[in-house]
């Protein structure tokens, strides 16, 4: 019964969304309030119908209604309830349903919070409903999750074991989807602005706020994905330049570029068309990402046509691409003031170079991701672009971006005076140099890693120096306490300090990536019960196997006693999980992070020149069981020691908080002295 | 045109040229072709010292695991050819005679030195036919 009802809800939502979209566009064009109201109501009704469809699907999943195709595909009676619920996004059809659901929520939130902009809203609503209609069409026809199954199977296969091996599967995909889907809103507002030919600073603020929301979700989603890859896949790393990972990071990079170029647009009325192109590109890349990850095109160029969903995505992608290019060329020119750069060395040019670097990095990743597909489509030969390609290009660009993160905030808008720059840059440069010397003394080697650490220290000094300078200036004027002045400044300009907090998060992430990428230790050992092996400061002793059964899997763990520098740290149990629906076991690594260690002994380690903040990462690779001589049974362990990996998760969280802060509306300024654009700089425009 | 904007354009072109160079170099050095043993043999001397991903079936009776499980040698075959493979490290749990595997590494002499060894994620396996594009994981479903 659920199947037909669900399909009915989706069909009805499709009709309402399509009609609402047309009504909104017509209303926007004619200014007819009745039509605009029809479009608004369309948004709410679509959202209600899609929510009903999602509830029906969840009911079908939880009650194991195998007459519904999607449940038959991903459901299984043995799967625990949590993984049953989250298998809503375990496969193609369900994740598109989830996509539309999030989009309809975003659209409602956008309409409810945006009261002004009467001329833009109908167009933006029309675009958003049109996108909804497209995805509804996909699940109404070729990718119908509610299709009937005959005969009804008694049980299903259950979701892919990798998707039910870790609770993170309930967190990481929704975050990423909220990011991908959320880019629809700034895209829709940009299209509306282009159609109306108006993009004043208030419109840009609207776009910015709605671009920050998906940016925060993308940031958290990407970092959560790295954590999932690290904690579940058992290869000791967190980023393999997999096309799916690349697909998530590309829209993030372009949105980041957008958030920076927007500041130039707001301050100097330059780069308007460019700024809008960036947000349009980010949306295109989010569609491309959904297409790449969800159509099967990655497995083979020739397999994506089998589902019928792939070609539709290609149609959507082409339609958005062509219409955006046409809109930007025809209407883009109206947005720019004829501003020019006053000097090569100023904040504007720093932002411009920042944009170029982000775009270059995105293009690099896009090329590496799409190249195998192009070659396969044109030549038929299968090849892959190795991870060294991405590292080879991303590391120098990353270092350049890091450098700019230090220089940018120091450069003034408009023209700059070299003596001021020298004065501002001297302490941070000294801090960076000092950091490199200190690390060399401690025994750290490696040119690019040292450059990265040195630059991280430089950026840290610049960022903290800027904040401290602002607080000192305010205290000079107001006689507030340090904390009071800091809080007041944050309330006055959350954007600025949210942005700095994001930069601090980036520093943490870069330090984590550099350290774990350059100084990872790895080794393997085959141990019989009671035997030991050493890696770094660790000594591992294999004790025995510990099997136990769960409803959906059998878990075989190897109990390993761990000691670090002579101190006993208890036991770790890496395991192999045997799922009922797959012959191949899934390794479940055991990780011990010394971020949780005692600070006293950590300090002692640091004094001895040993990094105390590292992860011990154990993977059970295989075992032999000798029943006659149990003492000859052995386990094969793969062992990694990953320094400072925890910095990446911490930094991701800090970036997310910074992004949230930057979203807060600024408190009204009281005095003319604190106006956003100082008179001297206004005159330069 | 003001001097500063000309400087910016020149700077942009320099960056673009540098990027193009880095991209070209990076791509041409890091392409890894996915082929079968017989396709590897057909490449003859041109394949020497090159990186490949090689997909095929482990010939039954050819597997030798060294003491301590640190290296494994076997013959990887498709219907028209076979290549000796040496793989460093512990073979994954499902590695066995007859399994479909993908190895990645360098072809030197008559031996393929694999740095990674992956077992296909399926129960039944059909070796890829040369000349056709292999299915995603060469599985028979």
How would you explain this protein's 3D organization?
The complex is a heterodimer of chains A (about 675) and B (about 140). Chain A has about 675 residues and is an alpha+beta fold. Chain A folds into three domains: about 1-160, Four Helix Bundle (Hemerythrin (Met), subunit A); about 170-335 and about 340-375, no CATH class; about 520-645, no CATH class. Helices cover about 60% and strands about 10% of the residues of chain A. Chain A has 21 helices and eleven strands. Chain A has helices at about 1-30, 35-60, 70-75, 80-85, 90-115, 120-140, 170-180, 185-195, 200-230, 245-270, 270-295, 310-330, 345-380, 385-405, 420-440, 445-480, 480-490, 495-520, 600-605, 645-665, 680-685; strands at about 380-385, 520-525, 530-535, 540-550, 555-565, 565-570, 575-580, 585-590, 590-595, 615-625, 635-645. In chain A, strands 3, 4, 5, 6, 7 and 8 form a six-stranded antiparallel beta sheet that branches. A four-stranded antiparallel beta sheet of chain A has the order 2-11-10-9, with helices on one face. In chain A, helix 10 (about 245-270) runs antiparallel to helix 11 (about 270-295) and helix 10 packs antiparallel against helix 13. Residues about 595-600 and about 670-685 of chain A have low confidence and may be disordered. The radius of gyration of chain B is 21 Å and the shape is elongated. The relative contact order of chain B is 0.16. Chain B has helices at about 5-30, 35-40; strands at about 30-35, 50-60, 65, 70-80, 80-90, 100-110, 110-120. In chain B, strand 4 and strand 5 (about 80-90) form a beta hairpin. Helices cover about 25% and strands about 35% of the residues of chain B. The interface between A and B is large, with 47 and 40 residues. Strand 1 (about 380-385) of chain A pairs antiparallel with strand 1 of chain B, so a sheet runs across the interface.
């Amino acid at each position: 019964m659920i199947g037909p009802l669900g399909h009915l809800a989706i069909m009805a939502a499709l009709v309402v969304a399509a009609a609402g979209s047309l009504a909104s566009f017509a209303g926007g064009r004619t200014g007819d309030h009745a039509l605009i109201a029809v479009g608004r109501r369309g948004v709410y009704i679509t959202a209600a119908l899609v929510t009903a469809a999602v509830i029906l699907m969840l009911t079908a999943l939880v009650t194991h209604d195998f007459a519904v195709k999607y449940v038959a595909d991903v459901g299984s009676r043995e799967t625990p309830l949590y993984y049953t619920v989250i298998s809503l996004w375990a496969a193609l059809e369900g994740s598109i349903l989830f996509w539309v659901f999030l989009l309809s929520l975003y659209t409602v939130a956008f309409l409810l919070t945006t009261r002004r902009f009467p001329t833009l809203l109908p167009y933006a609503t029309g675009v958003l409903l049109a996108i909804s209609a497209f995805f509804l069409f996909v699940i109404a026809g070729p990718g119908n999750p509610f299709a009937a199954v005959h005969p009804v199977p008694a049980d299903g296969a259950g979701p892919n074991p990798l998707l039910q091996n870790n609770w993170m599967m309930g967190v990481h995909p929704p975050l990423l989807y909220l990011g991908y889907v959320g880019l629809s809103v700034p895209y829709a507002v940009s299209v509306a602005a282009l159609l109306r030919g108006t993009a004043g600073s208030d419109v840009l603020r609207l776009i910015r706020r709605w671009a920050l929301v998906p940016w925060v979700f993308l940031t958290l989603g990407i970092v959560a994905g790295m954590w999932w890859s690290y904690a579940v896949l058992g290869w000791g790393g967190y980023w393999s330049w997999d096309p799916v990972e690349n697909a998530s990071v590309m829209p993030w990079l372009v949105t980041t570029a957008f958030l920076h170029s927007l500041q130039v647009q707001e301050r100097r009325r330059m780069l308007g068309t460019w700024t809008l192109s960036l947000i349009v590109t980010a949306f295109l890349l989010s569609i491309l990402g959904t297409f790449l990850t969800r159509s099967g095109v990655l497995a083979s160029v020739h397999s994506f046509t089998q589902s019928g969903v792939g070609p539709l995505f290609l149609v959507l992608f082409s339609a958005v691409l062509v219409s955006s290019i046409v809109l930007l060329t025809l209407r883009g020119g109206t947005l720019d003031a004829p501003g020019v750069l006053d000097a090569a060395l100023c904040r504007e040019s720093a932002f411009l170079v920042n944009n170029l670097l982000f775009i270059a990095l995105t293009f690099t990743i896009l090329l590496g991701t799409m190249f195998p597909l192009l070659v396969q489509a044109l030549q038929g030969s299968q090849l892959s672009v190795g991870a060294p390609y991405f590292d080879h290009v991303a590391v120098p660009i990353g270092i350049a971006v890091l450098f700019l993160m230090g220089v940018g905030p120091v450069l003034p808008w408009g023209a700059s005076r070299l003596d001021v720059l020298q004065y501002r840059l001297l302490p941070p440069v000294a801090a960076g140099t000092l950091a490199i010397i200190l690390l060399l003394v401690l025994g750290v080697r490696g040119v690019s890693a040292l450059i990265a650490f040195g630059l991280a220290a430089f950026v840290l000094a610049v960022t903290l120096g800027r904040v401290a300078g602002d607080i000192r200036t305010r205290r000079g004027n107001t006689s507030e306490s340090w904390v009071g002045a800091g809080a007041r400044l944050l309330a006055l300009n959350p954007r600025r300090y949210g942005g700095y907090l994001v930069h601090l998060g980036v520093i943490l992430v870069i330090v984590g990536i550099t350290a774990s990428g350059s100084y990872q230790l790895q080794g393997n050992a085959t141990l019989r019960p009671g035997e030991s092996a050493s890696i770094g400061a660790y000594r591992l002793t294999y004790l025995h196997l510990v099997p136990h059964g769960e409803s959906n899997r059998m878990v075989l763990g190897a109990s390993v006693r761990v000691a670090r520098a002579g101190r006993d740290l208890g036991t770790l149990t890496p395991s192999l999980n045997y799922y009922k629906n797959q012959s191949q076991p899934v390794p479940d690594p055991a990780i011990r992070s010394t971020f949780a260690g005692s600070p006293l002994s950590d300090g002692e380690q640091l004094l001895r020149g040993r990094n105390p903040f590292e992860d011990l990462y154990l993977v059970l690779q295989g075992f032999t069981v000798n029943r006659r001589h149990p003492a000859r049974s052995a386990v094969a362990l793969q062992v990694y020691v990953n320094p400072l990996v925890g910095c990446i998760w911490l930094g991701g969280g800090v970036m997310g908080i910074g992004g949230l802060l930057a979203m807060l509306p600024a408190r009204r300024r009281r005095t003319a002295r604190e106006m956003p654009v100082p008179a001297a700089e206004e005159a330069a425009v | 045109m003001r001097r500063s904007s000309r400087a910016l354009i020149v700077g942009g072109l320099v960056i673009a040229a540098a990027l193009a160079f880095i991209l070209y170099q990076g791509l041409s050095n890091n392409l890894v072709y996915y082929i079968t043993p017989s396709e590897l043999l057909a490449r003859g001397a041109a394949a020497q010292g090159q990186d490949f991903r090689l997909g095929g079936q482990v010939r039954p009776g050819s597997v030798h695991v060294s003491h301590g499980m640190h290296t494994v040698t076997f013959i990887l075959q498709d219907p028209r050819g076979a290549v000796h493979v040496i793989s460093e490290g512990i073979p994954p749990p499902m590695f066995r005679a007859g399994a479909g595997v993908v190895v990645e590494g360098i072809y030197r002499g008559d031996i393929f030195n694999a740095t990674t060894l992956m077992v296909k994620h399926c129960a039944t396996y059909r070796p890829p036919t040369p000349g056709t594009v292999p299915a995603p994981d060469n599985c028979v479903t």
